């Protein structure tokens, strides 16, 4: 079952998104990930940016999306190990680029772009804390397209030149720390856990369903998601279109499940 809202930590997507709505916390984290880059004043587009260019194209929901004068940044919290993290980053970058220019604008206006994943697993098995990828030739010449994919392995013990990032990465996996930045993040998590409006938003949002779905997948229990969706629909926490989106049933089949569920609860046939 999903954990209690008051027990959620920074590794939870919803809490991470809310905590990183603080521009200074976000800016400081980006500077730890990109020590060679000076981050200018951030323009926060939204806490959670949904990009769905066309109705029949797979849309994406970015956890923490922001821009400064010269670059676009997307930071994702990837707790569960998923297939093809490279393809996910490629698709995220393509969707971000498709929204970056207006019709007729010159390609030179494209900003640098960073897609960053915090992982609670080692995505490439080399025991590195930070994996950074840029396009280059087989001979090593870097393609200066301004796009970079970054994966942060929060389980790594050696941080290399990313020592200032280590306390936060370790905190994502549950370690306590006296690091000043981690203390600020912890304080924000504590406040988020006690925010009644955010609690309500979490319980009524797709995050709750997503968590149940991912846990069900991990345990091989597809029915877990359906039961969660049915309960939320019966409690009037989600509407019919939202329920259908997450349970992947036709309207007729879903409403039959609703009827059967009500029957089982009342004992009437």
Task: Put the structure in a nutshell.
With 269 residues, the chain is α/β, with parallel strands linked by helices. The chain contains 10 helices and 8 strands.
Write the layout of secondary structure elements.
Elements lengths: L12 H7 L3 H11 L9 E4 L2 E3 L8 E3 L1 E4 L3 E8 L6 H14 L13 E8 L10 E4 L13 E7 L12 H7 L7 H14 L2 H9 L1 H13 L3 H13 L5 H8 L3 H16 L3
Parallel strand pairs: 5-6, 6-8
Antiparallel strand pairs: 1-4, 2-3, 4-5, 7-8
Quickly count the domains: 2
Kindly state the number of beta strands.
8
Fraction of helical residues: 40-55%
Number of helices: 10
- Main sheet record: 6 strands, mixed
Q: Mean pLDDT score, rounded? A: 82
User: What is the CA–CA distance across the termini?
Assistant: 29 Å
Structural class: alpha/beta
- Shape summary: globular
Spatial order of the strands in the main sheet? 1-4-5-6-8-7
Order of helices and strands: HHEEEEEHEEEHHHHHHH
Could you characterize what this model shows?
With 269 residues, the protein is an alpha/beta fold. The protein folds into two domains: 5-194; 205-266. It has ten helices and eight strands. It has helices spanning 13-19, 23-33, 85-98, 166-172, 180-193, 196-204, 206-218, 222-234, 240-247, 251-266, and strands at 43-46, 49-51, 60-62, 64-67, 71-78, 112-119, 130-133, 147-153. Strand 2 (49-51) and strand 3 (60-62) form a beta hairpin.
């Amino acid at each position: 079952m999903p954990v209690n809202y008051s027990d959620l930590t920074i590794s939870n997507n919803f809490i991470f998104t809310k905590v990183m709505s603080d521009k200074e916390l976000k800016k400081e984290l980006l500077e730890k990930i990109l020590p060679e880059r000076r981050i200018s004043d951030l323009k926060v587009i939204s806490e959670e940016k949904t990009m769905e260019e066309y109705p029949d194209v797979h849309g994406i929901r970015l956890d923490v999306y922001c821009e400064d004068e010269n670059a676009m940044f997307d930071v994702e919290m990837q707790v569960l190990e998923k297939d093809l993290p490279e393809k996910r980053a490629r698709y995220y970058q393509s969707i971000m680029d498709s929204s970056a220019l207006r019709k007729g604008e010159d390609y030179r206006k494209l900003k640098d772009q960073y897609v960053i994943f915090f992982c609670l697993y080692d995505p490439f098995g080399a025991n590195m804390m930070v994996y950074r990828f840029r396009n280059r030739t087989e001979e090593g010449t870097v393609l200066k397209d301004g796009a970079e994919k970054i994966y942060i392995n929060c389980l790594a013990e050696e941080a290399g030149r990313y020592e200032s990032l280590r306390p936060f990465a370790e905190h994502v996996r549950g370690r306590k720390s006296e690091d000043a930045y981690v203390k600020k993040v912890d304080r924000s998590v504590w406040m988020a856990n006690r925010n009644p409006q955010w609690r309500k938003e979490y319980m009524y949002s797709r995050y709750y369903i997503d968590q149940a779905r991912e846990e069900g997948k991990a345990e091989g229990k597809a029915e877990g998601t359906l039961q969660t969706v049915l309960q939320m629909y019966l409690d009037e926490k989600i509407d019919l279109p939202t329920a259908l989106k997450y349970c992947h049933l036709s309207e007729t089949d879903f409403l039959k499940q609703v009827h059967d569920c009500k029957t089982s609860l009342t004992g009437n046939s």
